[in-house]
């Protein structure tokens, strides 16, 4: 059982290496903004130059989600569904004065971090 947990941990780390590099390169100049939602306080990293936002659970929630997944050997899905992360991204954009911006696409980068591509219309 311990070997299986160790193997799953190593596999998770290996599959995340490329994503971690991408996240670092894409969001290294972004400041952290916290957005309070009914279910959690999400952490937002915005890169307006390329119209992308990364949304992640609060640190406490992320730790609990990781622990829950580990205790079930990955059988339980412990992260909230994508729409909750997207709602936090949309709230961030609205709070930042960009109510006209719309989320065009979104996907999981590394659990529990989602990336969303947004469009604010024509740039002047």
Outline the structure in words.
This protein has 124 residues and is of the alpha+beta class. It has one domain (2-119). It is 43% helix and 27% strand. It has helices at 2-27, 59-71, 82-95; strands at residues 32-36, 41-47, 52-56, 102-110, 113-119. The chain has a five-stranded antiparallel β-sheet. A hairpin with a 2-residue loop joins β4 (102-110) and β5. The radius of gyration is 16 Å and the shape is globular.
Helix-strand layout with pairing:
Layout: H1 2-27, E1 32-36, E2 41-47, E3 52-56, H2 59-71, H3 82-95, E4 102-110, E5 113-119
* C-alpha end-to-end distance: 58 Å
Q: Helix and strand succession?
A: HEEEHHEE
Q: How confident is the prediction overall: mean pLDDT?
A: 78
Major sheet size, sense and barrel closure: 5 strands, antiparallel
The beta-strand count equals 5
What's the domain count? 1
Q: Name the helicity range.
A: 40-55%
Shape: globular
Structural class: alpha+beta
Total DSSP helices: 3
| Strand adjacency order, main sheet | 1-2-3-5-4
Structure in a nutshell:
The protein contains 3 helices and 5 strands, in the order αβββααββ.
What keyword list fits this structure?
five-stranded antiparallel beta sheet; 5 strands; 3 helices; 124 residues; alpha+beta; globular
């Amino acid at each position: 059982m311990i070997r299986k947990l160790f193997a799953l941990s190593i596999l998770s780390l290996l599959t995340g290496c490329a994503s971690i590099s991408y996240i670092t390169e894409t969001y290294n100049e972004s400041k952290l903004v916290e957005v309070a939602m009914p279910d959690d306080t999400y952490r937002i990293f915005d890169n307006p130059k390329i119209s992308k936002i990364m949304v992640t659970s609060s640190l406490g929630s992320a730790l609990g989600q990781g622990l829950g997944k580990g205790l079930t050997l990955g059988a339980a899905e412990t992260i909230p569904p994508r729409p909750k992360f997207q709602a936090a991204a949309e709230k961030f954009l609205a709070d930042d004065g960009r109510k006209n911006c719309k989320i065009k696409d979104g996907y999981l980068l590394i659990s529990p971090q989602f990336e969303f591509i947004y469009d604010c219309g024509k740039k002047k």
